[in-house]
Amino acid sequence: MANYTPTVYGTGTKATIQRIGGHLAGMIMPNIGAFIAWGLITALFIPTGWLPNESLAELVGPMITVLLPVLIGYTGGRMVHGQRGAVVGAVATMGVVVGTDIPMFLGAMIIGPLAALVIKLVDGFTQQRTRAGFEMLVDNFSAGIVGGAMAVLGAWGIGPIVRVITEAAGDAVAWLIDHSLLPVASLLIEPAKVLFLNNAINHGVLGPLAVAEATAQGKSILFMLESNPGPGLGLLLAFLFFGPRSLRPSTPAAMVIHFLGGIHEIYFPYVLMKPRLILAVIAGGAAGIATFMATGAGLIATPSPGSIFAYFAVTPKGGWFGMLAGVLVATAASFAVASVLLGFGRAAGEDVPATEPESTAQPATEEA
């Protein structure tokens, strides 16, 4: 399988965090095509899309709640234990998918590799104890038993835990809104988005509150808290100019998909690869919200998907300046912070080392 994320070298906390982020991103990047397909179908065929179609719009729900999590679990399992790990990871992911109406991307990123690790340990135990001629029987039954057991664990254990995390994030955002701390909400919204809890927060918490406010006042700023495309655009611009050279060619297409298509999920793996960049999107989100508040901006409905075109479509008459100002300020703030965190490209080679301080590092050896 192709390596979609830069290799991290060294030891220490920084390298460990980058490795974890790289593994999480590695489950998403190979499936970006599926995210794009879902995004195109969503943008075209939902009731507020460009070509509304009731029958084709039925693809949207199953794709985001079942297909995409299963693909993530499959990929995570394959990273740990090849094809057997992939199959078991996909089966186990169905456990976290069933019984919930929120996208279980986070649950899939947990259960897929975990199930693959279990079958890897089981294989190591059975390989030396299986008699000749019984290999296929043992392999198939062990994969089936482990996959089924992990699916049950996902349904009864990991799925409910992820739901609790999602609900807690939503409650925290609602508390900040109730106490008029809207810019501070970015401290919760942006990290939750990167963990693929964006739909739960936007449609589960912000959407209902925004609809009630828009009904009374004709517009609501709450529609703009999570859906602002500015922070993601600024981050991708920073990657284009200052990111690892191996990733720069992927960013123009990602910017088009994100900013024009409204598929925010496209930039989440870039943050997961370098977790410190969460500070950039937080800064962009907070700056955008503050600008929206200062200019009295608001939307009349949910911009779905969250593209600049959708923003124009649901901006009330006379509200263009505030809307554009918030998006542009968010883009600039995110770009500035991300550029600093990326070191303005000073370490933009194919691989990004993350080592201990020079005083403790071992001298490198060169090969002829």
Unreliable segments of 5+ consecutive residues: 350-368
N- to C-terminal distance: 29 Å
The total beta strand count reads 0
Instruction: Report the sheet with the most strands, covering strand number, pairing sense and barrel closure.
Output: none
| SSE sequence, one letter per element | HHHHHHHHHHHHHH
Broad structural category:
mainly alpha
Any idea what the radius of gyration is? 22 Å
Beta-strand content: under 5%
Helix content: 55-70%
- Multimeric state of these chains? single chain
Query: What is the molecular shape?
Result: globular
> What does the average pLDDT come to?
82
Number of helices: 14
Describe the structure.
The protein is mostly helical and 368 residues long. Helices cover 66% and strands 0% of the residues. The chain has 14 helices and no strands. Helix 2 crosses helix 4. 50% of the residues are buried. The C terminus is likely disordered.
Question: TL;DR?
Answer:
The protein has helices spanning 13-28, 32-45, 54-57, 60-97, 105-126, 135-178, 186-194, 198-217, 230-242, 251-260, 268-273, 278-295, 308-313, 320-341. The radius of gyration is 22 Å and the shape is globular. It is 66% helix and 0% strand.
